[in-house]
Amino acid sequence: MASGGEVKLFGMWASPAVRRVEWALKIKGIEYEYIEEDLSNKSTSLLEYNPINKQVPVLLHKGKPIVESLVMIEYIDEVWNHNPILPEDPYERTKARFWATYSEGKCRDAVGKVYFTEGEEKENAIKYLEDIVRVLDEELKGKRFFGGENIGFSDLVLGWMAFWLPVAEEVASFEVLDSEKFPWFASWTDNFLQVPVIKENLPPRDKTVEFFQNYRQQRLAA
Amino acid sequence: MASGGEVKLFGMWASPAVRRVEWALKIKGIEYEYIEEDLSNKSTSLLEYNPINKQVPVLLHKGKPIVESLVMIEYIDEVWNHNPILPEDPYERTKARFWATYSEGKCRDAVGKVYFTEGEEKENAIKYLEDIVRVLDEELKGKRFFGGENIGFSDLVLGWMAFWLPVAEEVASFEVLDSEKFPWFASWTDNFLQVPVIKENLPPRDKTVEFFQNYRQQRLAA
């Protein structure tokens, strides 16, 4: 294991953005201290290190805080440059970063809309989400992972969809994932979830479903 | 002037995201061909090069398309590494990339909300926007630019606010910019707009106001 100097990660067990950073740390073999936050009663450390967003994850390296999960992954890859996460070629890097933008923009937006709407609005959100999964399916055609034979930045960034999208389907009673309609996306989710570093660093499925069921009910009631 | 190989930029004159890429190209002294798109009748080239988002800007380098303005700036900075745009230090880079996330997330969201709402919803959006300008003002305390004495990535990314936020205020009749309330932000906008490469690459103010007036009316009527 590479020594991480002093690396701490403030997280919350059900958060996809937190897991994504943990996957990156594990790929690099960086030792770190994980601090679970109670988001209904945030620690003074969290508020001190992330005064603008007041959210997890926060990565602390040698006492200096880093905010935003994708920024953390770029940092981790720049500081510990073994087991590279981003491609080396500048043009390939643009593609990886494009998928990062797509994940945090359209994908999150679409899944959020399906989760927290009902009726016609939800039906439209499901169609919007299907269009997005179609784009990903198209991109994955003939490929094991986004980056080719091994997982890379795009996979880590979009990987939340492999685990949290089926959870969302169960919680909000909809179906978008269909291995006949989107075979490449379906096999990517299987491939991704079988990678040891991913498989060993996922939250328990049942507890996650329960967590998002409660969260959805609160949001819909608000 | 550094030769850009074959660099083309598909743009639209009033778009902040397009100008931001032009600023980066000009800082590097890269020669490029600019192609103005009619967004009501997009060219087959644009649709071919950006089939997923179908938007400007698209940067073409040696025939290969790059999408998303921030991804383009990172690419430009990696391929032409003179006149650096991103800081060299990995931790300083995390701060620059944090502001990029903030610009494309909260800042854009807030300005869009003020533009395209009315009544109480607009009042709330103005308060939300004020909170964001306060965050930027705080960050700029004692500094000429986000990066210090010279413009860098954060300035290029957030620079749209220096020109397009006053335009938005005029178009949508609101006032957030206040040099007494936000003195550091106000002096940053002045400093930024006085940098020759920025000053010489802005759209005409009156035409921009007119453009967004029409755009706003269409959106509010839709």
TrEMBL record, chains A, B:
<dbReference type="InterPro" id="IPR004045">
    <property type="entry name" value="Glutathione_S-Trfase_N"/>
</dbReference>
<dbReference type="InterPro" id="IPR004046">
    <property type="entry name" value="GST_C"/>
</dbReference>
<protein>
    <recommendedName>
        <fullName>glutathione transferase</fullName>
        <ecNumber>2.5.1.18</ecNumber>
    </recommendedName>
</protein>
<feature type="domain" description="GST N-terminal">
    <location>
        <begin position="5"/>
        <end position="84"/>
    </location>
</feature>
<dbReference type="InterPro" id="IPR036282">
    <property type="entry name" value="Glutathione-S-Trfase_C_sf"/>
</dbReference>
<dbReference type="InterPro" id="IPR045073">
    <property type="entry name" value="Omega/Tau-like"/>
</dbReference>
<dbReference type="GO" id="GO:0006749">
    <property type="term" value="P:glutathione metabolic process"/>
</dbReference>
<comment type="similarity">
    <text>Belongs to the GST superfamily.</text>
</comment>
<dbReference type="Pfam" id="PF02798">
    <property type="entry name" value="GST_N"/>
</dbReference>
<dbReference type="InterPro" id="IPR036249">
    <property type="entry name" value="Thioredoxin-like_sf"/>
</dbReference>
<keyword id="KW-0808">Transferase</keyword>
<dbReference type="Pfam" id="PF00043">
    <property type="entry name" value="GST_C"/>
</dbReference>
<dbReference type="InterPro" id="IPR045074">
    <property type="entry name" value="GST_C_Tau"/>
</dbReference>
<dbReference type="InterPro" id="IPR010987">
    <property type="entry name" value="Glutathione-S-Trfase_C-like"/>
</dbReference>
<feature type="domain" description="GST C-terminal">
    <location>
        <begin position="89"/>
        <end position="218"/>
    </location>
</feature>
<dbReference type="GO" id="GO:0004364">
    <property type="term" value="F:glutathione transferase activity"/>
</dbReference>
<dbReference type="InterPro" id="IPR040079">
    <property type="entry name" value="Glutathione_S-Trfase"/>
</dbReference>
<dbReference type="GO" id="GO:0005737">
    <property type="term" value="C:cytoplasm"/>
</dbReference>
